[in-house]
Fold this protein.
Amino acid sequence: MNRPMERREFLKVSVSGAGLVVAVSFFGGSSIAVSSGVEEKAGNAGKPWVPNAWIRITPDNVVTVLMNKSEMGQGTWTGLAMVVAEELESDWKDIRVEASPVRDEYKDPVFGMQITGGSTGVRHMYDPMRRAGATAREMLIQAAASEWNVPSGECRADKGRVIHEKTGKRLTYGELCVKVSQVSAPQDVPLKPRDKFRLIGKSMPRLDIPDKVEGKGVFGTDIFVPDMLYSAMERPPAYGARLLSFDQQAAEKIAGVQKVVTIPDGVAVVANSIEAAWKGRSALKAVWDAGSLPNFDDAALERILSEHMEKKGIVAKNVGDVEDALKKAVHRMKAVYLIPYVAHAPMEPQNCTADVRKDACEIWCPTQFQTAVLQVAIKETSLPAEKIVIHTTHLGGGFGGRAEVKVVEEAVRISKAVGKPVKHIWSREEDFRNDFYRPGSLHRMEAGLDWEGRLVAWQHKVVVSPIMERILPWMVKDGIEPTAVDGIWDMEYSPPNLSVEYVRLGLPIPVGFWRSVGNSSNPFAVESFVDELAHAAEKDPLEFRLNMLRENPRAAGVLKKVAEAGDWGKPLPAGSGRGIAQRFCFGSFAAQLAEVSVDMQTGVIKIRRMVAAIDPGQVVNPDSVVAQIEGATIMGLSTALKERVSFGKGGVATSNFSDYPILTMAEVPEIEVHIITNNEKMGGVGEPGVPPVVPAVANAVFAATGIRLRSLPLSPNMLKKALANTENSTGA
Amino acid sequence: MVELIINGKNYGVDMDPSANLLWVIREHLKLVGTKYGCGEGVCGACTILLDGEASRSCQLTLGDASGKSITTIEGIPQSHPIKEAWISEQVPQCGYCQPGQIMEAVALLSKNSRPSHDEIVQAMDDILCRCGTYPRILRAIKKAAGTGGSR
């Protein structure tokens, strides 16, 4: 029987200067995210005009904007396309977007690397993209003016056309494609004043959504390359475990298995289907030794954290004299907070397709960190950068986890070993077990209040594993890992006496960037403890915070906003409560108000309502900001109530969503998002919504029950026990 | 040879009937809109319609689907109220789970054209989204059912 797909599906293979370029296209030629460069891909549209690295205009009037930032649902592609279209005076319907190649000119201008992270996509590229659009616009005006032999000052650009008002002449950008190629790029082009913006600041529909709704958005797992095989890796089940034996022949006997290869860190099975590769891996019956920490499990982890708390750390910050201020304080409070390891768990498991040949290497992957992909490819293949072509696909969730390139390293090694392209997809279990987690941490705090209930001293010791030390080591200064102390050493409340000590936890558990990084976990300790202090001072938690934020009107502003919109101070039924928290990070101020109710019998926490506010300064696409804050709120709630990576037998015990549940629709409350805009410098949006979520919930639980939960996830069992104890003591 | 009917078209698949249906659809027939998420029927990214019933294709074999009618995301017309509502409510973020969400929502509306809030939540509760698009999914289904939506 004919496979009808064969007629509609085609694979186009062409050879470019940089190596083999394979464009994969489905469904009658709907173009996909993988790009071969700004100057290529003209297709049937005719010879394109390419004013710079970011823009391609074809005679059919289509304007394609090349994106050096990865699209993982955060809306950066649409935001940056809006910025270009604004200055270029394009018709929005003519705008297309495409992933840029991996080359020097596409590096982030601040980071000097091609990376999507730190909530920087729009704010780092805003100026370059504006200039790119404005330069092209001026060149098009120039080309039209010379065509009509009129002064360019008499021409203007509007909705994809240049217009000469006096004569009523007009030419579309497509029509100007040939003529404009003779115009040289001007310096110092004028940028539009903000009051003339017609796109920036308005909610525009996301350009990537229609394809995603049709199932046509191309993710890493959707890549097909001619002669492609599938691979699966057998890896150490425990940290430091060494391979003792495996049954190569048994694996090779599995139908479809082509080859078994030993590569660093394990054994790879290569087959003509993913099922055969996975079956082959099982058939290896690999035997490993017990590893370097054979008895490591959840209890051991807690013990190790506690032991480290007694060690001397590095002083990351020392303001005033904390010891002295604590001695003089009228009221002293102590608390210990415990935060677990959590996983990224993107819905698309880590994957990479690699085609390593003697003289060239091509890689397709959903990555946040193209520069690291390139570096790993250079290292593994010994090829020069110009022989390596990297295509960024859509990312099925990133959250920082796709800044890691372990899956790329494996795919490149396996393809090199077998001399064929391989599609290397981690199973969900592999994704959970090989993640670079958000590190767990232990916090010990002591604070002092004066006779007026004002915060006068804060002593904070944190035990946590470093992240930057491995990924961006130059960010570690004097041994201080910034992600360990973010949200602590720069807390908004600026206590007059503050000391922050960091104890480095050197466990073999890999840790990495997780949506807002240190800011995603540390504020649970800080903002919960601030709440404890407010209650100790017998002050309203909002007033207590606002009193300390008199010099910080934007932090106070987001708090006031959620308090006002979230009915702060209005009565609630027994067993219900509201909590608030705020954090400034990635250039933006954010606050959350949580309203919860607690079942006093079971301890089950129900989130009734979340009210979020963000002040990111300027906003490009408001609905993308709303969507990001909604998502950040839900991800935060998921860690508040459910998430914790479990360890056992010297390795990771967590395996799949069945033992690592994440928040589902039934648990999601009404979420209200307020955006505060002003003329301040543009801040980030993807991450800042997360940090205040967890403490707002914990503070709401306290308001509802009088019970302070100091470890995550906030557990009904713990709450139930504490509630029972309170009842007993009240009864007695 | 196993006969499959996918989106109204006949396919002859020369594979062992014990082959996993998800991988047959995705990797062999290259209908890649149907996604792999967990492999244990927990996340719902692989949801298809099997004779109209929302089913986790990762939990089925090729043989299970023999002679039955399969609908995937590619077989839902662009003009379907669910797909239109998904765009007007700007539902997807990363988009990876969305085909599964859409298939489950299509199945829900085909059986219950005006589901209540609770009925929607009950039907959709076992399809995971890591980006947190749940509020918009809810709104889009209400909009498609003519019972709500905000834009």
About this structure: Residues 31-213 of chain A form a domain with the Aldehyde Oxidoreductase; domain 4 fold (CATH 3.30.365.10). Chain A is about 30% helix and 25% strand.
